[in-house]
Amino acid sequence: MLKKAAALLFVCASMATWVGCGSTSSHYLYASIPGSNQIVAYREDPNSGVLTQLTGSPITAGSAVQSIAMHPSGKFLYAANSGDGPPTGDVSLFTISTTGAIAEVTPRTNVGSSPTILAMDSAGAFLYVGNSGSGSISAFSIDSGTGALTEVAGSPFPIGMTPINMKVSPSGSTLYVTGGGFPGIIEAFNLNQGVLSVVPGSPFFTGRNPFGLTISSSGNILYTANTLDNSISEFTINADGSLTELSGSPIGEQYAAPVTLFIDKSGAYLYVANQGSSNLAAYSIGSDGSLALLTGSPFGTGSQPNSLATDAGGKYLFVGNQQSPVIQSFSLDTGTGALTSVASYSVPGSPTSIALTP
Question: Given 100, 106, 130, 352, which is the most exposed site by the fewest CB atoms within 10 A?
């Protein structure tokens, strides 16, 4: 018995590099690479944050695949192909096997021109597509069994601007869409079975070119990263979905060209990808939504960080760097918000979107 136990201990230690002792991972990471029309796929070790590229990766996708979105079931992955068309672009549906392999379901679903952004409600009932070429939002209901998309009545919805980012509120009741300009714009839409209607008082004004957009896990605070202003704007989300800017907002950043915002799973920390400074700034989030720069911030990244995502456990943060181009893995200290580099992985082109299975 002692020999058998020792042997098992040795096997566990030997395998730790691959799967981690005491835990078997079934978590996978995907990243869109528009320059090569591909999606790269990795298995993630939840004990270390280490990524192992899957056999067959990268996978051929649509032309200039720009954005990807994971269904909360972990069974379906959606990809916006901004280069397909014209006059219309399209969205691909991929099924995800238990081994992480993805397989496209054809035919693709037509949307507006140059689809570049995807957003989904937390229940996985509706998918929204931001069409940059046609200045519209396409809306679809999602079949929970097959992942198939059915366009809702009235879609696509014209919004009168080029969408540069969008998020669905945690309740699934409101869609927020940012647009560039001097000042920048946030359009807010009530959602009723996927149908968009304008929130009273919309649009709301923010800083210039608000490429970054995120909403607190409680659903009561919205933030934008204003790329041309090097600032972050903070808004209270009112009961009717309208926005009220917080006192003291926007806060000036010390770093250049903030493009992406991300709130960790605990809701305690906000991370900012500063493309012009090649770093991540980290802030603690106060009970009123106010931000305070963390000790040790910023954390260095590769050149031009752009996309941010976390794993199911919230212990690792993944960064897509456009200029390098690499995907970086960081361990995230949930007690302090500090980041520690784990490893970097070369990819065949600039990654623009990252999604992980739940």
Answer: 106
